[in-house]
Amino acid sequence: MSTNIYDNLREHQKPAVDFVMDKKKCAVFGCPRSGKTWIAGAVLEKVNHKDFKCLIVSLKANKETTWKTFLTEQLPQVPTYYFGETPIT
User: Fold this and answer.
1) Closest listed residue to residue 44, CA positions, set 69, 62, 66, 70
2) Which burial class, exposed, middle or buried, applies to 30 when counting CB atoms under 10 A from its CB (0-12, 13-18, 19+)?
3) Which of 11, 50, 65, 75 is deepest in the core (most CB within 10 A)?
4) Distance of alpha carbon 88 from alpha carbon 82, whole angstroms
5) Consecutive sets of 10 residues in the chain, 89 residues long: mean pLDDT of each?
6) Could you tell me which residues come within 8 angstroms of residue 46 by beta carbon, excluding any fewer than 6 positions away?
């Protein structure tokens, strides 16, 4: 398995990443269980210039599971901030 997130995406996810990388600004929406976390991770991995600013907003239901786990394991270099009713340490 490649350490590159993009290379590990499913074929239906890669066009979403390609779409984002071809735009200056955009929004991408996906159905539940479509792999949005991995798409966002591949974009974060590809964007590497110092002036990049990004905001990821996720559902409260998965901020403690999907997002925290994904960012910790796949993109530990990306600063993250979690907030809401349940603090995450």
Assistant:
1) 70
2) middle
3) 75
4) 6
5) 87 93 83 86 82 65 73 81 59
6) 6, 17, 21
Contact in structure between 10 and 16 (CB atoms under 8 Å) = no
**Residue 35 region, left (φ>0) first, then alpha (ψ -120 to 50), else beta?**
left
- For 55, the token pair is 């905001």
Token match 């890669």: residue? 14
For residue 44 the two structure tokens come to 């974060």
Is the CB of residue 6 less than 8 Å from the CB of residue 46? Answer: yes
Give dist(CA 52, CA 22) in Å, integer.
15
pTM of structure: 0.69
Which helix (H) or strand (E) covers residue 54, if one does? none
Q: How far apart are CA 61 and CA 51, in angstroms?
A: 31
